[in-house]
Amino acid sequence: MEVNQAKQEHLLALKVMRLTKPTLFTNMPVTCEDRDLPGDLFVRLMKDDPSTVKGAETLILGEMLTLPQNFGNIFLGETFSSYISVHNDSNQVVKDILVKADLQTSSQRLNLSASNSAVSELKPECCIDDVIHHEVKEIGTHILVCAVSYTTQTGEKLYFRKFFKFQVLKPLDVKTKFYNAETDEVFLEAQIQNITTSPMFMEKVSLEPSMMYNVTELNSVSSSSESESTFGRMSYLQPLDTRQYLYCLKPKPEFAEKAVVIKGVTVIGKLDIVWKTNLGERGRLQTSQLQRMAPGYGDVRLSLELIPDTVSLEEPFDITCKITNCSERTMDLVLEMCNTRSVHWCGVSGRQLGKLTPNASLSIPLKLLSSVQGLQSISGLRLTDTFLKRTYEYDDIAQVCVVCPYTSPES
Fold first, then answer.
1. Separation of alpha carbons 393 and 252, rounded Å
2. Which residues form the Trafficking protein particle complex subunit 13 N-terminal domain (predicted)?
3. Which of 86, 184, 330, 364 is deepest in the core (most CB within 10 A)?
4. Residues of 387-406 as b/e, b for ≥16 C-beta within 10 angstroms?
5. What whole-number distance in Å separates Cα of residue 283 and Cα of residue 238?
């Protein structure tokens, strides 16, 4: 940040500098062949250069740190730190010195001063120092306003201000996708892209669910000894690279049976992202509440509570269906089972299920068999509400793998 001083007519001088970590110095090696005119001159110069790594002078590596020469970039979620110094350049004692530091954003004005009380006096060649910190939470133009007021020996009250303008950039691009499962589970895919010019160490990416859900992270692979991240041990995100994180949200037991409540829930939770850059500068972002499109179940919802993955050809197997009344009226339901080309239902079709009150559920065990091998779709269930004479059709409810138990493997 540029160093600004007060005008000469003022007795005090104001200096403001941004506090940042140093950066690694990288040298640019210049080499030539021995038969060229410079000979070994460039090699000797690189060996004598204190910024090079001994034994690897021709590599773009350095073992020195350099202080920032300019203000640099500030990204959303990072902590802005600044050093403020007021120095008495005069030969007289100055009294009642008050230093204020405010940060002006597009939406608010924040007071960053560590103390709002005035210093009683400041002798010549003495100074007042202050360090301010602020976690940046807005994108766009920020203005640091530093104001100094004081009183001279003659009792004259003087006042001056300095303005320091900087831009806050966006470090990450976050995109989300929702997938609504038939079992009331919600899968969230979060795509996070590093849009800065330096690599990031992703310290934490977690999902804080809303009060109705429990969350399971699906970003690690469990082995016999420990759980390893799917992204490997080195969790670095290079510039412009994108990484996908997956989460599964399940309704809490007290809300799982309330079909209407779960159906209307659109707020899922918020992502909490923590990263580190360069020499350990820490940044943190928390998204706003993520919202999904509420799934439309209609008046009656049919889901599967139990179904096998693999069944035998032409052998009956059992499934359990759950029927939920999602409407605001009582229904009198009749279940019909219609055979398809590959799926054949066992039992009586057209049986009465009785009355089902609003938000109530009913579990029904059913038996069926398949006459065709391969991946077969469960279809052909029909529910009829005798009150309104309305029929609800359910096809492609689930899939099962049908195998022939009598086929022996080829030798």
1. 29
2. 10-168
3. 86
4. eeeeebebeebeebebeeee
5. 16
Give the span between the Cα atoms of 207 and 197, in whole angstroms. 26
Beta bridge partners of residue 95, listed in sequence order: 121, 151
For 244, residues 6+ apart whose C-beta sits below 8 A from its C-beta are 189, 190, 191, 192
- How many whole angstroms from its chain centre is CA 305? 33
Domains of the chain: 12-19+69-169 (2.60.40.10), 172-220+235-293 (2.60.40.1230), 300-403 (2.60.40.10)
Helices H / strands E in the chain, number of each: 3, 33
Tokens of 280: 């350990």
> Counting every residue, how long is the chain?
411
Residue in this structure with the two tokens 């970039």, named with its chain if needed: 73
pTM, two decimals, is: 0.67
pLDDT per position as a tens digit, 280-312: 888 999 999 988 876 666 788 888 888 999 999
- Give dist(CA 72, CA 284) in Å, integer: 19
In terms of Cα–Cα distance, which of 285, 286, 264 is closest to 276?
285
